Amino acid sequence: MEKRVNIQQTEPGAYKAMYALEGYFKTTPLTSTHKDLIKIRASQINGCAYCIDLHTKDALKNGETAQRIFMLNAWRETDFFTEEEQVVLAMSEEVTLIHKQGLTEETYKKAEQVFDQHYIAQIIMAIATINAWNRIAISTHLAPIRD
Asked: CA-to-CA distance for 65 and 71, rounded, in angstroms?
C-alpha cells in the first residue's frame, strides 16, 4: 500500500481533538473491558487492521483473554460474555453498522435495563470515537507493524 497523508503531522489540531475524546473516557466509569470490547468489535466490522492489532494487544495487557478475543466475531454463539458485555457488543455492532438499522429499540431497551443514561451515552460516544479512528486509519493506510 502506498503511503498517504499523515494527518497527525499535517493537521495536528485534528489529532489533538481526537485525543481529547480519548482523554474524556479516562474520566468516565466506562470499564476497560467495555472500552476494549467496543474498540475491537467495531474495528473488526470496519476491517481496520491497524486498530484491531493495537486494541487486541491493549486488551491482553488489560487482562482480557485470548479466547474471548478470538470469539468476538461469534459472541452470540458463546456464553463467554456477561449480559452487560453482550449489550455493549450489540450496541457496538448496531451503531457501527448505522446504515442498516441503527441502534434498535430492542438493544436500547436492554441497555436501559443494565446501564444508566450516563453510561449509555458513554458507550455511544466510545463507539463513535473508535469508528472515527477506524476511518482515519483505513483512509490513510495506517498498517500494523509486525512484532
From this structure: 10
Q: Is the pLDDT of residue 18 over 90?
A: yes
Per the structure, how many domains does the chain have?
1
Q: What is the DSSP string of 46-106?
A: HT-HHHHHHHHHHHHHTT--HHHHHTGGGGGG-S-S-HHHHHHHHHHHHHHTTTTT-S-HH
Contact 141, 50 (CB under 8 A): no
pLDDT score recorded for residue 79? 97
Note the pLDDT of residue 19: 95
In a domain, 85, yes or no: yes
- CATH code for position 37: 1.20.1290.10
Structural domain boundaries enclosing 119: 33-139
3-state secondary structure of 36: helix
Q: What is the pLDDT of residue 20?
A: 96
Asked if residue 16 is part of any domain, the answer here is: no
